[in-house]
Amino acid sequence: MYKHLSRPTLPEASQAVAEREEIDDYELGETLGVGAYAVVRLATHKTTAVKAAVKIIPKDPKEGLEKTVQKELTIHKGLKHRNISRFLKSREEPECLYLFVEYAAAGELFDKIEPDRGIQEDLAHLYFIQLLAGVQHMHNLGISHRDLKPENILLDASGTLKISDFGLATVFRYGGRCRPLQTPCGSAPYVAPEVLEEQYSGDSVDVWSCGVILYVMMVGNTPWELPSTDSEEFSLYVQSGENPTHEPWNRLQGPVRKLLLSMLKINPSKRITIKAILKDEWYQRPNPLLTNGQVNDPVQLASMLMENVSESCSPVVAYSQPLHTGRIAPSQSAVFDHRRYASSQPARNNERASDSSLGARIAISWQDEALELSQPTTQLTEATFLEVFSSERLTRFFSETDPSQIIEALDDAMVSNLVAHTVHESLQKISISTTDQRRCFLTGEVKVVPYGPSSHLVMFVKSRGDPLEWKRMFKALVSALEEAENPIHVEMSPI
């Protein structure tokens, strides 16, 4: 089984480096994502105004990160495909390594998927085609991604899919010879069962992950917490003979169901290959949104995504797993300790979450976790696709209630929904560091800012985790606000 490895905090000297204002010809802006050992920030070229995402990785000889980062750099530099985020350049300084990659302006694909609902089949087909194209390119070069999950599936300004984050990628074939892989890594709901056995083929596990991603696009939820009998949902899948008929599997019919089940064969020797997928009936179906694998009308694509997404805050299934009763301490694995920057108001949560709160998730080593790259959709202003579809507004609301009351009500809602958090009252924000219903990490902030003379905008900004689960949490919390004994006035559109 997997060992929970120790995670030392980011060295304090490196925190200052991660907060610097410029590097080379780039001005550094907002933080796009965080991991246990890296921070990703938006970078804007001083002359051309072209944006990039820069991953800042502190150097610490004691932790041995440099070899891992060098491997990521080498692999990413060699991948050149329209559905893979482009490597731009790297820079090494005494304290940090900097990796500059293409900025995916439209953020994460899964921001556009409605929880427990999914997206239209044409949209799922479009993004499956593009996902498979990028994965096929990697496999042709003997590279396995090993961490295909929502955070690593991004969209550019035209809505084109980009695979990102190659921190766990590795060579599985060289000189025509394949080597078995053994390192347990990935995100629990998306890994193949054989990864748990620590003996697997790099190409086959990527096919499994693509199958789970297709499932999520179609139904709006992951099929299980972990592909083992520890998961009740996976046990039902096994008991059904890998042909389940219960909800939501019964919503999947016809060719797409056939393809999905062939990708999610538990025995990897019986699992469909990418070569066979390319000949599959559903894969080859016509799609009015695609021309030669590319988006032919970004505005129409954005419009369809907007039609698909419901902005209602109707009640959803209880958001989080019950970790334990009472207030839950925030995780200590974030890059920055938010309590360090809190105002004179004491943080409400100051005890460490127990190891048991992580539940049945794969414990990725700290070296692997340091290389996560995630880009929340907070810069949607560049092109027509972005003008039509803005994911920002899908996890925000407006209220005329006093900010202190909003913060207090959100605090109560998070406690009742078992969302681990820290309140910064004078800053009018809440830091979230919790686990989602699949027991995977979920972190971000809720900020309350003025909007007009008497209204306030409440923004939920994710920094790490499954965007679908972030949206699910948002809906659960807003529902709790509206149903509280002293409800908070909530409007999804500007007041």
Automatic annotation (TrEMBL):
Entry GO CC: cytoplasm
Gene Ontology biological process terms, A to Z: intracellular signal transduction
Presence of keyword Ribosomal protein: no
Keyword Nucleotide-binding set for record: yes
EC identifiers of the protein: 2.7.11.1
Keywords from the UniProt entry: ATP-binding, Kinase, Nucleotide-binding, Serine/threonine-protein kinase, Transferase
PROSITE patterns per UniProt: PROTEIN_KINASE_ATP, PROTEIN_KINASE_DOM, PROTEIN_KINASE_ST
Molecular-function annotations in GO: ATP binding; protein serine/threonine kinase activity
Domain (Protein kinase) ranges: 26-283
Residues at which ATP binds: 55
Catalysis: reaction(s): L-threonyl-[protein] + ATP = O-phospho-L-threonyl-[protein] + ADP + H(+); L-seryl-[protein] + ATP = O-phospho-L-seryl-[protein] + ADP + H(+)
PANTHER family to which the protein is assigned, alphabetical: MAP/MICROTUBULE AFFINITY-REGULATING KINASE, SERINE_THREONINE-PROTEIN KINASE CHK1
Entry's family note: Belongs to the protein kinase superfamily.
Name recorded for this polypeptide: non-specific serine/threonine protein kinase
Organism of provenance: Entomortierella parvispora
